[in-house]
Amino acid sequence: MITVENLHKHFSGFHAVDGASLKIETGSITGLIGPNGAGKTTLFNVVAGVLPPTSGRVVMDGEDITGLPPHELFAKGLLRTFQIAHEFSSMSCRENLMMVPAGQSGEKLWNTWFGRKRIAEEERALRAKADEVLEFLTIEHLADHPAGMISGGQKKLLELGRTMMVDAKIVFLDEVGAGVNRTLLNTIGDAILRLNQDRGYTFCMIEHDMDFIGRLCDPVIVMAEGRVLAEGSIGEIKANNEVIEAYLGTGLKNKDKLEAGA
């Protein structure tokens, strides 16, 4: 689905992404791991159109999407979430979801005068879909709660729910488990698996929790110093001496630490 070819992103001489090439296959849950500063989030930002590349290409389903802005990629079904959730804090969880689809009739002043029936019908359909999404994510009890008042883990679920309000083809998840307790992390993991298996979502996720990666992801791609260092199953990655050295920086003596989920 996504092919990244020799991608570079430089910031005043600093090579945050330095010739990275990788593929994300349709229907996969691909993990992207590596030490801090490896270039993972920068790569996400370039693929998702937040940052323009210095050079290289990004191809989606055979189409060159390099440098397209986020709203155009959104329309093509490429979405991303952020490590820090971006909710409308004073609006309810349901209203946050209803805001997502683009091109709603109520966005045009003319329709507010002469298209009220159409607006009302759209809102009923959006409300029903939002309630379905909240139920799928097991947070229907939060439907009327202000989004700014729910927990960090629940906000991550709400972010995932936003991707369900449109026809997402591939979703880039940036540290969906960061700051989330184990119970909610399991709930998030269950939702990702169901979206992948039952609804055909393709995911690529940055994550530091190796247990979480091991449960969900195949393949796992390792980045270091802006480049792809290795790719394989979680077992192959844990057994790769080069990965252990780059990820932990202290050599093989910490191999057991990596295998334990450090």
UniProtKB/TrEMBL annotation:
Residues 2-250 form the ABC transporter domain. This is Branched-chain amino acid transport ATP-binding protein LivG. Keywords: ATP-binding, Nucleotide-binding, Transport. Pfam families: ABC_tran, BCA_ABC_TP_C. It comes from Roseicyclus elongatus DSM 19469. The keyword ATP-binding applies. It comes from the Bacteria. GO terms for molecular function: ATP binding; ATP hydrolysis activity. InterPro entries: AAA+_ATPase, ABC_AA/LPS_Transport, ABC_transporter-like_ATP-bd, ABC_transporter-like_CS, BCA_ABC_TP_C, P-loop_NTPase. One of its GO terms (cellular component) is plasma membrane.
